[in-house]
């Protein structure tokens, strides 16, 4: 059963804040430091579980589950909508946590290499919401708490199946070895479908199924324009072929240097840097270096203010510091 907000004491708020910081810190660190979000999510879930357990030991009951677990009967109350997200960072046991983290890391890391960090995070959240919304719709009047990141974990499998089914990744399917993604995803999905109708356990099989389906359906529109083209067959993201494919995809997204927003008005060092940029800017790293130098030498062609070199998803562009709409080049 959940805990209503009127019952939340100052001490409970303090514990909840600690839990939230523990859950968010690895995600923020991974995003800022540009390390794999899949690993950041894994660390986030582990820390959230440890803090959840410590808080339960201190207060005598599972406070974080009472505050953040999914309760279908409360599904449309505006003050309880956070549960659709927070439930994915709460777990019922150590085995529950480790099982989800295993899938998130083994499937998530190579999938992130295909999608890119931003698209991967979006798919993950779709899996979270898809699983929890599906469970809510099927158990509308239930007040039994539902927790876990399984819907998101199955969502990653659904996305991978939709976009790169021929990839081979390490996974404990009978034996721990490389298996085709299609085999892993279809086996896990079929197992859930078979168990759901007659299940008497406390496992939310339907949440796994709906998380999988949500990501499978939305995967291709989201993956389009990602680091690696949909359907690429290159031996898998951990191979040299996968890295080459990512590099090629990034290069294809680099803008055209033939024209510039200054229309030939640059003078002195800025003009010479622009010329070198056009001569040597075919490679990602070289282009980034020349763009960073140009940002120090040139001004915004609209307001004459400072410009900066901004990197997003591996691509560097020049933007005005005062207004991003003034310049976005190349």
Brief synopsis:
The protein is mainly alpha-helical.
Question: What does this 3D model show about the protein?
Answer:
It is a single chain. The protein folds into two domains: 5-243, Rhomboid-like fold (Up-down Bundle); 254-329, no CATH class. The mean pLDDT is 90. A hairpin with a 7-residue loop joins β4 (315-320) and β5. By secondary structure, it is mainly alpha-helical. α8 (181-195) runs antiparallel to α9 (205-223). 57% of the residues lie in helices and 8% in strands. A three-stranded antiparallel β-sheet has the order 3-4-5, covered by helices on one side. It is built from twelve helices and five strands. It has helices at residues 10-33, 37-59, 63-68, 83-86, 94-115, 117-138, 150-163, 181-195, 205-223, 240-252, 268-280, 284-297, and strands at residues 168-173, 175-180, 307-312, 315-320, 328-329.
Number of domains: 2
- Main sheet characteristics: 3 strands, antiparallel
Structural class: mainly alpha
For the CA atoms, what is the radius of gyration?
24 Å
Q: Mean pLDDT, nearest integer?
A: 90
What is the terminal separation in angstroms? Answer: 55 Å
Shape field: globular
Instruction: Please report the number of helical segments.
Output: 12
- The total count of strands amounts to 5
Helix content: 55-70%
Query: Which class of the largest domain in CATH terms?
Result: Mainly Alpha
CATH homologous superfamily classification of the largest domain: Rhomboid-like
- The portion of residues forming beta strands comes to 5-15%
Order of strands, widest sheet: 3-4-5
Low-pLDDT stretches: none
Question: What is the annotated CATH architecture of the largest domain?
Answer: Up-down Bundle
Tell me the CATH topology of the largest domain. Rhomboid-like fold
Helix and strand string, N-terminal first? HHHHHHHEEHHHHHEEE
